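[job 0412] stage=complex_fold ligand=iron/sulfur cluster status=START
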Amino acid sequence: MSADIDAGGVPELQESDVVKIPRGVRLREDKARGGWVLLAPERVFQLDPIAQQVLMRVDGERDIAAIVDDLAQAFAAPRDRILADVRAMLADLITKNVLEVT
Amino acid sequence: MNTPSEARQSPSMQPPPIGMLAELTHRCPLQCPYCSNPVELTRKREELDTQAWQRVFAEAAELGVLQVHLSGGEPALRQDLEALVASCAEHGLYSNLITAGVNIGRARLEALADAGLDHVQLSVQGATAEVNDHIANLPGAFDKKLAFAAEVTDVGLPLTLNTVIHRANLHQIPDLVELALELGARRLEIAHAQYYGWALQNRGALMPPREQVMEAIDLVEAARERLKGKLVIDAVVPDYYARLPKPCMNGWGRQSLNVTPAGKVLPCHAAETIPGLEFWNVGEHALGDIWQHSPAFNAYRGTDWMPDACQSCDRREIDWGGCRCQALMLTGDATQMDPVCELSPYHDEIQTLAIVDSHKDDEFTYRRFSRQPA
Ligand code: SF4
Ligand code: SF4
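[job 0412] stage=complex_fold status=DONE, emitting structure tokens
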């Protein structure tokens, strides 16, 4: 793990960090209710379209910089803002133990 | 984005369930005195066969279920568990094996993982062999569980440790947290005993004193804060000493269903204790039909059935009036508000009852099949 976990348990993610969806957590479409979900032990996270776009790019190989570049291009949005959002979202999911830094 | 969604559907249609508890069998090598199975256990010859379960999983996925909890009794006593896991995987269902971990060897565990098992939830009855094996009434169980936990993490499956808490193991909460960390669990469930079924029969042996319960809540909270990002700790809070009821099942017939070994579909695992409810069986009805139309599911759905005090209360769609089974057991009327609620006329009575039971010195009545010809 290269990300530092501070005392409060919230990781400070670097652009060079690579995150992955660990075994036991699954991203899938939820046809019955619409949208996408992240399934974890005893928990179901309903994803908003942005979270879905981010997580679909989390493959355990691309680093955060690459994911952000891709999103900035796909949505023609300012990279800084995307980086901030992606960082916050991934850090939150890491704290909830449904994402891991490789 | 982190709460299960409310479905947008026509008002006459119930939003689909998210989770399904599949009680594959009532057979179990352990005899926990708080077991949530009914006191009248279903025998092997009445269990659904492989094909019936596979059809249930297909229908569940079609209906919108996302997660299946393969439970029991001990689900690994089913010879066809691998095939059932494979069936869940085939239909995109997230499968969670809820096991006591005393009868699954390495080869079988690997076969289950290969079949697509997503997660293992291992029960421990205590944090030491002495406490664990006494509560489970099975010598050697604890060592087997430790060995099994090591295999689970070695195979690469995520592990949750689950402990039901009561008077005989409440003092071990810090040890349970340590044990979960040592075993490499990613999640720890500390669930205070819920007093239905076997636990109700054993209330005088299980009910902890109030001060210890409060202390335990603080301990769990502190551990949860300290281990954020490392270990998820989920706690099911103890009921009888509370002022507000728990949102039992997140509302009757709202998010989950429970299929018994013989194929009856229940809104919660204790629902059969409520007299007069008509449950439908997967042998006679499709799961979606049962979810929408079975009388038992519609009996306490929503808020219409509620007593006036709940109807005019802000929390009616937060706790849904609490637990129906508990209302029945303690007041004799399943349409009462859960007597844990401060506004219940029975509230003081059950607090007193808990305090009295916590001072009793009863022996365990262990869970077992009744002595009738098999
Ligand atoms: S609670 Fe104990 S006796 Fe009941 S099914 Fe689970 S392990 Fe078996
Ligand atoms: S009055 Fe009913 S809805 Fe309000 S808190 Fe009590 S049980 Fe819940």
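Chain A touches chain B through 31 residues (CB under 8 Å).
[job 0412] exit 0
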